[in-house]
Amino acid sequence: SDFTSPPFHKLGRLINGEHNALLLAIPLDGIGSFPPHPPPDPQEQEAAAPPPPPAEPAVPPRHRGHLHLFKKPLHRALSGLAATHGPVLLLHFGSRAVLHVTDPAVAEECLTDHDVTFANRPRLPSSCHLSNGYTTLGSSSYGPNWRNLRRIATVEVFSAHRLLRSADVRGGEVPHMARWLYLAAPAAGPSEPARADVKARAFELVLNVVARMVAGKQYYGGEGDAEAETEEAARFREMVREYFAMHGASNLQDFVLLLGLVDIGGAKRRAVKLSRERNTWAQRLIDEHRATATAAAATEARTMVGDLLKMQASEPEAYSDKVITALCLTGTDTSSSTIEWGMALLLNHPAAMAKARAEIDRFVGTGRVVEEADLPNLPYLQCIIRENLRLYPVGPLLAPHESSADCSVSVAGGGRYAVPAGTMLLVNVHAMHRDARFWGPDPESFSPERFEGGRSEGKWMLPFGMGRRRCPGEGLAVKVVGLALATLVQCFEWRRVGDEEVDMTEGSGLTMPKAVPLEALYWPRPEMVPALSGIFFIYNFFY
């Protein structure tokens, strides 16, 4: 089955995927305390506040916080805290009350029964400028602006029809990545393999896919030159990298309100500068499309910007330049991290890579490169992707939600916990994916076979979210990751750089990056050389 059918659809509902990450970090100890909660109605008279773990003893009781308990990466620290103190915890991040959840049933209740209540985002000062004043799809509070953005993203950008129409983009860029690797090492072999920066290649692939879908631009690897990078491409690369870096950095002002008056380390200044650069980039794309638009081009619009400008003519308010810019800013894709983790897992488990390659050879053969239409017929590859997302989800913590009203949530063994309005909700996907209650006695191990034959039925795997803020781009992400991994496995032999296993240490940041970027040795499979040479001819002819 594919990622939108049972059981995976059922299992994948809980993650928020609009940015698929916690836009927080680890500042100093808290100064606030959880406010008293009057029960909202008689039915909830017995609701009690969730239990907090011990606070910092050196801080007065009224102002104790829990940030002293945490170490980077934050998702690991919180998982350990939950293992010791329980799956539903009240934490104090400075002046903010935080409900930390590792129980799937409680997370589901928060995002289904209390879907509207938890549909808001907390207004974190550090993200104000990066999100254009909380106006992007991932940062906007629940209301008319968010509903308009969500409708456009779901219907006009990521619908099945739009993804089908953009299949040629992915079908061009993924083979183009294979072509790049082949041209960089046409004579490589087992005795003299080439060395690939997998992280960089995956990053460039995803940015090319996004840039072509959004604006019809290709930033990397043009004109057959594997090393070519235009000035515009360099600026775009740095803009995206800085965006991720700033979202993964420590932001004290998010939790200690008085610090919002001080620009610690120049973070606010850098955020303002980055916001201006991104807005200028997006507006330039809009102006370029508008200047070159013709009646025929509008009819045949093949980019997101072109499509939305066409609709702007009839509905100028719904499709304003500001709305288009907001959607451009949500297009930064995080699939490159998943591709990198997937290749790292396969390098550490060569038997799984060989099994996937045999499946591709059996169904696709070696006379052509695998295509997107082949993916549903490669069940073991789908199992690899699912296991990849289970162990290394792009967002180990959901982007934070915030309650807009008092509510209560049920807990195991009966009873309810009261959750006041204004409480930040953090759902720890990383902990759920590695919970032995659902995944057996060895949940930390890589085993794609656990998904074979529908054995994942009823287990809690949550890669893309549920409810109103579910990731609208999950279909695109699955297609890009699946096609990239299939192509790399089919076209090349891969080997670790040294004798030791690939370091799988998790870093801190927006997308749970590898702490050590992945590099690997490779050479073209001899039986795939004719097909790889064909990519070179076809790409130069059509692209």
UniProtKB/TrEMBL annotation:
Residues 49-60 have a biased composition (Pro residues). Residues 32-63 are annotated as: Disordered. Signal peptide: none annotated. InterPro entries: Cyt_P450, Cyt_P450_CS, Cyt_P450_E_grp-I, Cyt_P450_sf, Plant_Cytochrome_P450_Monoox. Its cofactor is heme. It comes from the Eukaryota. Heme binds at C471. The keyword Membrane applies. The keyword Kinase does not apply. GO terms for molecular function: heme binding; iron ion binding; monooxygenase activity; oxidoreductase activity; oxidoreductase activity, acting on paired donors, with incorporation or reduction of molecular oxygen. Keywords: Heme, Iron, Membrane, Metal-binding, Monooxygenase, Oxidoreductase, Transmembrane, Transmembrane helix. Belongs to the cytochrome P450 family. This is Os04g0255600 protein. It comes from Oryza sativa subsp. japonica (Rice).
